[in-house]
Amino acid sequence: MKTVESALQSVTVPSDVLAAMDEIGEPFSAGYFGAEDEPIVIRIAEGLRRYALAVPLWKYHGEPLYPCDGPVLWNRIPQVMAFHYVRLDGPHLNILQDKRAAATTEAQREALDVLEQFWADYPGAGGWTHSIPNYRRILAEGLASYAERVEEHLTRTISDGDEERRDFYRAMQIVLETAEILRARFVATITQTELDDAQAEAKRRRLLAALARVPFAPASSFYEAVVAENFIFYFDDSDNLGRFDQDLWPYYEADLQAQQITHEEAVTLVAQLWDNMDACTAWNVAIGGTNPEGQPGSTEFTRVCIEAAQGKRRPNLALRLREDTPEEVWDAALDCIATGNGLPALYCEENYLRAIREADLEAPAPDIYDFAFGGCTELMIHGCSNVGSLDGDINLPQVLTQTISTHLAGFESFEEFFPAYLQDLESEIAQHTQFISEQQRLKSLYHPQPIRSLLMDDCLDEGVEYAAGGARYNWSVINVMGLANAIDSLAAIREVIFEKAEITAQELLEALEANFEGHEVLRHRLQRCPRYGNGDPRADELAHRLSEFVFTELLKRRPWRGGRFVGSCLMFTTYARFGQRVPATPDGRLDGEPIADSAGAYQGRDVRGPTALLSSAARLDQIHAPGTLVVNIRVSQEHFQSPAGREKLKALIRGYFDLGGMQLQVLVVDQELLRDALEHPERHEDLIIRVGGYSEYWKNLTPELRRTVLERTEH
User: Fold this and answer.
1) Confidence class for position 714, pLDDT limits 50, 70, 90
2) What pLDDT does 413 receive?
3) Is there a single domain that holds both residue 253 and residue 301?
4) By residue range, what is the domain housing residue 315?
């Protein structure tokens, strides 16, 4: 019996149909199907090469960096079949339908038939895959050295008769050719642009001089390093920059000492890079913390990165704070947060290092110091990770409603009921992690990532493709959702049914099934039960017990690709959508309403001040969930307006970290402004809101999400 891969390799597409794929705007498909009888990794590489030759490039207007707009490799051409850093992307049925309507020849229609049939047979694979190329190595060595390594490995595999690795290195050669095609096309675009402004013309010439060298030659200056970083960012399909300040600091320091750049000029240039990330809706940059040598990593350039982010939506700037982080960095962070964009998010260095060790993620020094984040804030090691982020979701209140329906009436005490819930969670975790492992296996067979195989250590040296486990670290981050709803619901069940016997299990079931219609008095009673987020030991004890079970249960299991399953709570903008799946819950939440937006209290339920909120969050078993547990807190602007207020805010954050807290993100926005933005969104096009794991424009939030932001407690 043929495998899917061998069956796909046996498909022969006539030359006129291949030509028709180009005619109808399917260059990736033309390259993919044109590589007849080749393995999938080479087919994808050929698709990328063909796409790079055809993709329309953004206009150049005299900016210091290019590209300087949205992504280049993804969604630039409407295609039925495309490439993305997650997987092969398709089928886009609306595009297929439009192209069928526009087809004018039989070959074009046949090309669309080929694509439709391809996707009918092709195995999909779920789970997201953010990642971080080894920018530091590329800046230091240049892609030309990568080409030399590929050539050496290819020669050896041919000599050894290792066909699988031979094909892998052939694919890497095609990827390098694709990078050169893009660089040549970028240079041509910039060269052909005529500029009247003298300053813009000077920028153009400087950019051309840099692109004549990088990223194929090592960067020789700070500017060349930023140009190379920008190129690789776009070539990697616009994802994350990782430990940007550590990678760029040596170049900045050298140019600063040589008086080739000023602090202000660096802020301007980095701000352009941040704008590029925003235009791409790109993701994370980790700064500060500990440098690769194990020493304090916050520098003047860390402040450059923070200052460049003032008032911006992206990137998700993640500031790693050590006990010895300089006050200048703290102050720069508070200045940026005060602009209302929620940047940077704050991370406790010492607690993360301990958590990585506790989770047995097998990251020894010096790699452990290079922890960074992908996407919202999913933990990975810079330059050498394939971390499923996010690979899947465990919806705690959804499982709880099933346990209530099946088991609640059969127990005499809460201590009998609670283990039944944990048993249901264990079953959910087992099924979910098995499914994720199968998805990882399918990715290795049918969704290889040749660009990341080139840019990520140790794929090249091992000769193992990225999706097949070639990267050094391969754990999987799982989103644990609705923590606050589950905790509050359990506290209500314990008090009202078992401790005080005010209602029976059956009466609660009837109220939940009726979505509390006709049971309003009971709903109000449930809402007066202990609430997580207020320093209440009754609720916080449940928070610890529940989170400890879930996070350690995940860590017991190993994904197909290796590593561990690592817990997180990263709701970004999905907490409303995932709430639609959850019936009414015993915390008084109605059917379909949003669940908690983070690992903190449910929106508006933290009523005893920020210290109580954070003391509750610290009771979660955070040390076993380094994936990251996002905690949102709204703070009034007045705390940023005086030295005393700022010192109190620093003390609050440090106190939370001393209790074991690992991450905190602060939103500063006036309640009256939010009310006006809710009624008149057209007046607030540039308003930025920190949601679950990143900052987003108010205009991009659904009405339901906007209301939940307004409901958050302002401290």
Assistant:
1) low
2) 96
3) yes
4) 248-383+636-694
